[in-house]
Amino acid sequence: MKAPKAKPSGQDRKITWKEIKRQKVLLFWSAVFVLYGFIFCYLPLGGWLMAFQNYKPKDGIFHSAFVGLDKFEQLFSDMTFLRVIRNTLAMGVINLVSTFVMAIVFAILLNEVRSRIGKKSVQTISYLPHFLSWIIVTGILHDALSSSGIINELLLKFGILDQPLNFFAHPRYFWWIVAFANVWKETGWNAIIYLAAITAIDPSLYEAASIDGAGRWAKIRNITLPGIKPTIMILLLMNVGNVLNAGFEVQYLLGNGLVKSVSETIDIYVLKWGISQGDYALGTAAGIFKSVVSIVLILVANQLAKRAGEERLF
């Protein structure tokens, strides 16, 4: 007697016209987003061809003279671009560490708040800066750090300074001002996903730890942090690729002639040469360099996480 055939699983089931008609709304919107991604994310990659040409707008991308890697050689022989790479990398690393750590710390501390009303109030207030434009944020920073601003008034009152300090006239303060701006603006928003990961931890683990006499710090160290470790690793890998995306608006708005040597990033360099100076090929080459480095950083970080046995992207 033959055994009955097993029913096909969801993965083995053939797609039929009936199934397609049933999922037509989902398929329609999926097609819309795929088309959007192709038009605005992949189609513009054809513009990378300009980096290998002596591009002239009047000749167009198909008739401009091909120059190979000349634009890249010009790029890396420019000391200004090398300084720009240093600035971008330094601010990117500082922003990554400060915003990443502060979001985790804030989420853990907020989770420890016992008052539901207090917790919701702090959580809501912490989200608000994320929705402010950089114009408003940099305006607040300019007012707070000006010679007559609240920061100078406090420093003078407590005797830390003898006279007001112009923070935007000293290059050594600029990177830390940018880092502070990013932390203040994004910490509450970045903490959302960590709060969601914390709520997914089994409450019985905390109950068992309380029975064993564990305090709050012991619970954080032995339950909360290990519980959100996979989320931390995934977000860290994703953020590593954004190290060279140190920013444009905040550096452009806060920068001035006195701190130009430390304020210019790759994005500002692309704006300056690619648009203001009309050298689209050089600006495109700088953009390609930034994209390639970001991809390499993600691949390397992902491989290191794989060898360490941690969560990874792929």
Whole-number mean pLDDT: 88
Structural class by secondary-structure content: mainly alpha
Overall 3D form: globular
Let me know the number of strands: 2
Element order, helices and strands?
Answer: HHEEHHHHHHHHHHHH
Placed side by side, the strands forming the largest sheet appear as 1-2
**Radius of gyration over C-alpha positions, nearest whole angstrom:** 26 Å
Q: What portion of residues belong to β-strands?
A: under 5%
Approximate helicity band:
55-70%
Please report the number of helical segments. 14
What report would you give on this structure?
This protein has 314 residues and is an all-alpha fold. 67% of the residues lie in helices and 1% in strands. It has helices at 17-22, 24-42, 70-76, 79-111, 116-127, 134-145, 150-157, 171-199, 203-211, 216-240, 249-254, 260-263, 266-276, 280-307; strands spanning 53-54, 65-66. α10 crosses α14 (280-307). The two termini are 46 Å apart.
Task: Describe the structure in brief.
The chain has helices at 17-22, 24-42, 70-76, 79-111, 116-127, 134-145, 150-157, 171-199, 203-211, 216-240, 249-254, 260-263, 266-276, 280-307; strands at residues 53-54, 65-66.
